[in-house]
TrEMBL record:
This is Lysosomal dipeptide transporter MFSD1. Gene3D superfamilies: MFS general substrate transporter like domains. CDD domains: MFS_MFSD1. It comes from Heterocephalus glaber (Naked mole rat). The lineage of its organism: Eukaryota, Metazoa, Chordata, Craniata, Vertebrata. One of its GO terms (cellular component) is lysosomal membrane. SUPFAM superfamilies: MFS general substrate transporter (SSF103473). InterPro entries: MFS (IPR011701), MFS_dom (IPR020846), MFS_trans_sf (IPR036259), MFSD1 (IPR052187). Keywords: Lysosome, Membrane, Transmembrane, Transmembrane helix, Transport. It holds the Pfam family MFS_1.
């Protein structure tokens, strides 16, 4: 034990002489940054955690930011363009169940994170090479490889958060991570089109080579995320030696046989999840040209308005998370979010009102739904089945996104944007109907999904007594 204590002290300080000599202020700050038990060190780890997912979220919506350029340079219709999103989702229909298992039982959190971010980096490089070599099938392959790493990296990010910030700080940490993810998406939407035009001016012409070079430069954000993953692995291993802390575990126990025990309210939550998210992400994937064609926006202005959902989500997700924590009434908040989204799509479809209004409403409702819907699973499922329930929810969400992305592209190619918006309105109407059914079923069963926070606390007290 004495040797371990000496090793810990050696890791934390420059040596015994420094400790005796009355270290200056700069040295004290450095000492705090190097001590895993101190707040300064944990803030450094938090910064690395936030930037860990930045590259993945930045590159996920590269196709949306460059829709015009991809369709023109690669000579593909909207159906083929939307395959770039479908191929991202297909591997995650399965990996939602395997990601946690691979982190816990095979790689460990440190190697798992590094491996998943490597898939993201390699996928982005293949995606860019598909442009350079004018091979759309190579771009599709790149998005598939990118997808293998993308969602599992989010699981690893959350595992690090739980490992370092258990307790009351955790919700704030999750909120900050989500905010950084949305900032990555926003920067992508507003930067990639400008970057393409600069490379086009430099090379003297547009085309697949210009597209590929733009995507390759965008991939630098993935390299930054890889550096963060390596730094996190080092700091986590170091903290394990100094504080004798264990490697983080996802806490996911996946048993597919548990699916047969899922209740009707839980299945309704799954339907709401799919019905809602398929009208947000595929719409953003196709939104840029919609704003150019219907409202006459410039390319830069269309990119800006298409990113409004992410811009609003960055600051509002933590705020709405706190609001739902304080008030409860989850079903009512979900009902508000889905209704607002329906109104937003109806405004975009049937009016010529300034689309900033509809997109701001969509951004607010998107942020609110995430805070109110996902926690409800934990109210319905015992702790040992949570991993299975959340894994299944993410799996069918990705299945829905893959299928609806393809259908949306086909509708746009054959019928146009008005029919596409009607299709999205139908999808969100299914989600709205499911929310109403969830409210009625929950009320009939005397369920706790729509309890206020005070009612939940009283229920927990009565159970403990």
């Amino acid at each position: 034990m004495e040797e371990e204590g000496e090793e810990a002290r050696a890791l934390l300080a420059g040596g015994p002489d420094e400790a005796r000599s009355g270290a200056p202020a700069a040295s004290q700050v450095l000492s705090a940054l190097c001590d895993p038990s101190r707040l300064a060190h944990r803030l450094l780890v938090l910064m690395l955690m936030c930037f860990l997912g930045f590259g993945s979220y930045f590159c996920y919506d590269n196709p949306a930011a460059l829709q015009t350029q991809i369709q023109r340079d690669m000579q593909v219709n909207t159906t083929k363009f939307m395959l770039l999103y479908a191929w991202y989702s297909w591997p995650n229909v399965v990996l939602c169940f395997l990601g946690g298992f691979l982190i816990d039982r095979v790689f460990g959190i440190r190697w798992g994170t590094i491996i998943f971010i490597c898939f993201v980096c390699i996928g982005q490089v293949i995606f860019a090479l598909g442009g350079i070599f004018n091979a759309f099938w190579l771009m599709e392959l790149g998005r598939f490889v990118f997808g293998i790493g993308g969602e599992s990296l989010a699981v690893a990010q959350n595992t690090y958060a739980v490992s370092w910030f258990k307790g009351k700080e955790l919700n704030l940490v999750f909120g900050l991570q989500l905010s950084m993810a949305r900032i990555g998406s926003t920067v992508n939407m507003n930067l990639m089109g400008w970057l393409y035009s600069k490379i086009e001016a430099s090379l003297g012409s547009a085309g697949p080579t210009t597209l590929g070079a733009t995507l390759l430069i965008g991939g630098i954000t993935c390299i930054l995320s890889l550096i963060c993953a390596l730094a996190l692995a080092y700091l986590d291993q170091r903290a394990e030696k100094i504080l004798h802390k264990e490697q983080g575990k996802t806490g996911e126990v996946i048993k597919l046989t548990d699916i047969k025990d899922f209740s009707l309210p839980l299945w309704l939550i799954f339907i709401i999840c799919v019905g809602y998210y398929v009208v947000v992400f595929p719409f953003i994937g196709l939104g840029k040209i919609f704003f150019i064609e219907k409202f006459g926006f410039s390319s830069q202005a269309a990119s800006a308005i298409n990113s409004v959902v992410y811009i609003i989500s960055a600051p509002m997700s933590p705020v709405f998370g706190l609001l739902v924590d304080k008030t409860g009434k989850n079903i009512i908040w979900v009902l508000c979010a889905v209704t607002t989204t329906l109104v937003s799509h109806m405004m975009l479809a049937f009016t010529m009102w300034n689309p900033w209004i509809a997109m701001c409403l969509l951004g607010l409702s998107y942020s609110l739904l995430a805070c109110a819907l996902w926690p409800m699973v934990a109210f319905l499922v015992p702790e040992h089945q949570l991993g299975t329930a959340y894994g299944f929810m993410q799996s069918i969400q990705n299945l829905g996104l893959a299928i609806i992305s393809i259908i949306a592209g086909m509708i746009l190619d054959t019928r146009g944007y008005l029919f596409l918006e009607v299709f999205f309105i139908a999808c969100v109407s299914v989600a709205l109907l499911s929310v109403v059914l969830l409210y009625l079923v929950n009320h009939a069963q005397g369920g706790s999904l729509n309890y206020s926070t005070r009612q939940r606390e009283e229920m927990m007290v009565s159970h403990t007594e």
